[in-house]
Design goal:
By secondary structure, this protein is an all-alpha fold. Helix content is about 65%, strand content about 0%. The protein starts with a helix and ends in an 8-residue tail after the last helix.
Length: about 230
């Protein structure tokens, strides 16, 4: 009887532990938001999404709009795929992912056309290319298909934020040094130009986007030696 009493007192605690839920912003969940900003950045560490970093970072405004658009698409797509993950046949999972992402991109494109037509026209084809963005498809395949809705949502937000952070940093320096402006407004005073300063037109050329990203990668790896690839 003594043994049965002991067992009966232990069982509720075991059940309670099994049913205990992870906090919404636990350490692991917070890492889904913070890691892509630094040690697991999609562009500087995973080397994904480089094309848009080259194409739309001449000015800061398109870079910000592109970053927000990718964040909306990634967050929504990750949630939808996570909800459907147990219903999607393995052999057509890529097709389903493409359909979901394409639907989200079309929705974002229509919103931009309605409320920011000039920016939409400037980004033009690059918004449509979010459909085939390696970062978006990669997170759907690698994370959303195997994790719950909340984690997938955080993963989408985190990776999109890491991607957008690099775009904004590159666009900031390219527009500032290339044309002396930010968001289309002159930042460098006329007095500086009168002293002989000339805008660095080289910053407006596509190769400088790659060089700027390379400098950022160099700074990142000099600060965190663990990111340096070993032969």
């Amino acid at each position: 009887m003594a043994n049965t009493n002991k067992n009966s007192t232990k069982e509720p605690s075991v059940l309670f532990v099994a049913e205990e839920r992870e906090p919404l912003f636990s350490k692991k969940n917070r890492a889904l938001l913070t890691d892509p900003m630094d040690d697991n950045n999609p562009i500087t560490v995973q080397v994904l999404g480089i094309c848009s970093a080259l194409a739309i970072t001449v000015q800061l405004k398109p870079a910000v709009v592109m970053s927000v658009s990718v964040m909306a698409v990634m967050a929504a797509s990750n949630v939808i795929i996570s909800l459907l993950r147990n219903l999607i046949p393995n052999r057509i999972r890529i097709i389903v992912q493409l359909v979901v992402v394409a639907s989200m991109v079309i929705l974002v494109d229509q919103v931009l056309r309605a409320f920011a037509y000039d920016v939409s026209k400037e980004l033009s084809i690059f918004i449509g290319l979010i459909i085939t963005n390696c970062i978006v498809m990669g997170r759907l395949e690698a994370f959303a298909l195997g994790n719950g809705v909340w984690k997938s949502f955080l993963d989408g937000i985190g990776n999109a934020a890491g991607y957008g952070f690099i775009l904004i940093v590159v666009a900031f320096f390219r527009e500032l040094l290339g044309s002396g402006k930010l968001f289309g407004m002159q930042v460098i005073p006329d007095a500086v130009y009168e002293m002989g300063y000339v805008n660095n037109g080289l910053m407006l050329l596509s190769p400088m986007a790659l060089i700027t990203v390379g400098i950022f990668i160099w700074i990142q790896r000099s600060r965190n030696r663990g990111l340096i690839e070993k032969n």
